[in-house]
Amino acid sequence: MVKQQRRHEAINTLYRPPFFREEQLMEKSGYTHLTERRRTHVEMIKQERMLSFNARLEEDLHRFLGNWLIKHILLGITGNMFPG
Q1: More exposed terminus of the chain, fewer Cβ within 10 Å: N or C?
Q2: pLDDT per residue as tens digits for the range 49-75
């Protein structure tokens, strides 16, 4: 959970300042589609968070399967898997 929070903070630190500056410039220049642009920025941040979350799940799954496979092989070699 802490790592996920850190990833969210990193994403905010990376994306929010440039998006904010862009939105300020658009507002000053009278850009007529500013509301839509802000929504796009919010969606981009949400998508990046989802990708980050999915990457974390992939890491966890990879670790779990790797550990399972190692244990599976070791148990098979030592004979503990097939009692008989």
Answers
A1: C
A2: 777 777 777 777 778 877 777 776 666
Amino acid, single-letter form, for residue 66: G
What lies within 8 Å, CB to CB, of 3 at 6+ separation is: 56
The set of residues, in sequence order, having a beta carbon less than 8 Å from that of 11 and lying 6+ positions away, is 45, 48, 49, 52
pTM: 0.58
Contacts of 27 (CB under 8 A, 6+ apart): 34
- Sign, CA dihedral 48-51-57-58, equals negative
The answer to whether position 84 is within a domain reads no
Give the whole-angstrom CA distance, residue 42 versus residue 31. 18
Residue 47 lies in a domain: yes
Number of domains in the chain: 1
Instruction: Give tens-digit pLDDT for 24-49.
Output: 998 999 989 899 989 988 888 888 77
